[in-house]
Every structure is written in C-alpha cells, then in structure tokens.
Amino acid sequence: MSLVLDNVTLTYPDGDRDRVLAVDGVSLSVPRGRLVGLTGPSGCGKSSVLSVAGTLITPDSGHVEVAGATVEDLDAEDRARLRREQVGFVFQHDNLLPDLTALEQVLLPVHLAGGRPSRHRARARDLLAEVGLADAVDRRPGQLSGGMRQRVNIARALMGEPAVLLADEPTSALDSHRAAEMIDLLVRLVSEHDVAALFVTHDMRALDDADEVVRMLDGQVAELTHAR
C-alpha cells in the first residue's frame, strides 16, 4: 500500500480548554493504481483526512504510512521532504501564478526543490500533452479555461513522480461536462502513473468511476463501497 491510515484520530482546539473531534478512528488504505473517492456532508472530516494523508497535519493518534514511510516516526523536516518527494496535490482552486506559462507552472516544483528546470522540460511537456494541453504550453492562466487550468494543476502535481496523489474537490469549479472529463482523466492518469489517489468530492457523479468510495459522517467512516 502506498497510503495507509489506521485508526486515526484528530482534534482541533475550541476555545481555551475544549477540543473538537474532527476525525474519529478512521482507517483506510489506497494501493498504487487505484482511485478512492472520499465523500460526505460538510464538516464530516473528509478534508481533515486529506490533510492527514498529505502529512500537512499530525493526528492526535493512529498510524499513517505514505509510500512505505511511517509518518509518526518522522520529524517536521523529514515529513516536509516526504511530502515534497512522494505526494502530489491537486487543489480545489488551481493556484496558478498569473505570470507563468503552463510549462513554467509544471516546472515550478522542480525549481522549488532546488533542481534545474531546464533538465526537466521534456517531462513537463510530456505531462502537458498527457492532459491534453500539448498546444497550450506557452499560454498563461488568463489565456486558459477553468478546465484547462485544472489540467495544468494535475500535470504539476505529477511532475515529481509521486507515489500518492491527493485531490480536494477537483471538479467543484467545473460544469458537469468538464467535471466528467476531469474524472475520466484522473482515472487514466492514476493507472498510467501507478499512483495511489484519494480525492474529496461532493459530486456524486464523480464517484461512479472511483475504485472505492469512502463515505464519512461525524468524523467516522460510515460506509466503504467497492465501486468497480
């Protein structure tokens, strides 16, 4: 398994003394090449689960494993390195920089990691071609549609060859047609790049193509469905 959460519990401060239980004993696992959808009503804890899976938040208790590394055994610096090298994030909003071209956006993780972007241009172009943007490498965000910007976001998340791909409401800003295309794209890329993918969504149609669906309620896993 590339992503494992075992009996994870997470609380947040609420006032001076109290804490709110956001995640209550959640267990789930995602092997490479599989796409798992995480859904449930607002406030059920699904975004907190995604943050724990991405090592952005340390849970109060439980076991978290990412790409074979036991997260609770790592210090903050090692968690940051694991996150940078093994986790790709697809955000709800594309977070593209307005002055960079699509190619430069995809190369940004290389630059931030201290690498030489010039050595990775071919891979960045290949990724943009994989998401259907071979002819848009020199366009800036203002010249791209919402769906195209989200495709750049996905290509950028895959640039570092992560073992785990996490997506937070990747279709929320898209119409139904483009949302369906985006999920089809994710299904194909998860298989081709052999990543373990977990995505949060309120869009029930998006869950039809997931390998598994985890439904949460009040911080707990209420139902696990093997969709296909």
TrEMBL record:
Residues 3-227 form the ABC transporter domain. The keyword ATP-binding applies. GO terms for molecular function: ATP binding. It holds the Pfam family ABC_tran. It comes from the Bacteria. SMART domains: AAA. Keywords: ATP-binding, Nucleotide-binding, Transport. The keyword ATP-binding applies. PANTHER family: ABC TRANSPORTER RELATED, IMPORT ATP-BINDING PROTEIN. This is ABC transporter ATP-binding protein. It comes from Gordonia liuliyuniae.
